[in-house]
Amino acid sequence: MAPQAQVRERRTHLRFDKVFTIYLSTEGGLSRGIGRNISAQGLFVETREHLSLGERVKVTFAGEDGTEMTCLCEVRYQVALAYGRKDGREGNSRGVGLRIVAYEVQEDQPLLLVARERVMH
C-alpha cells in the first residue's frame, strides 16, 4: 500500500461564505456579478463578462444600507461550468478568481495597497 500524500491547505485565511451583489469596473465599462467565497486575499465572482487573466478590475461591494467598499483586484483564473438543472436542461455559468491588490479608502485618496508575497504559478 502506498503512503498517503499529505495535502497542504493553501487557504490560510478565514472565508466569508455569503453571496453578495458586486459591481465590476473595467476599461469596457460597468457590469454586475455575484461575489462568493470572500477572504482577505481575494474572492470568486460569477459574471457573464469576459475578463482576461492578469486584468485589473475595480470591485465595489454595495450593502443594503447604502454603504460601499471598493477594492482593486487582479484576475487570477477563469472558470466555465456546465451543470444539470432540475428540469433536465443544461445550465451554464462562468466566473473568475480575483486577488485583492488594494483597497479604496476614500474616493479622493490613493488606493491602500495590500502587502503580500507575489505567488508565481
From TrEMBL:
A Pfam family hit: PilZ
Protein name, UniProt field: PilZ domain-containing protein
InterPro entries named in the record: PilZ_domain
Source organism superkingdom: Bacteria
Domain PilZ residues, every copy: 9-82
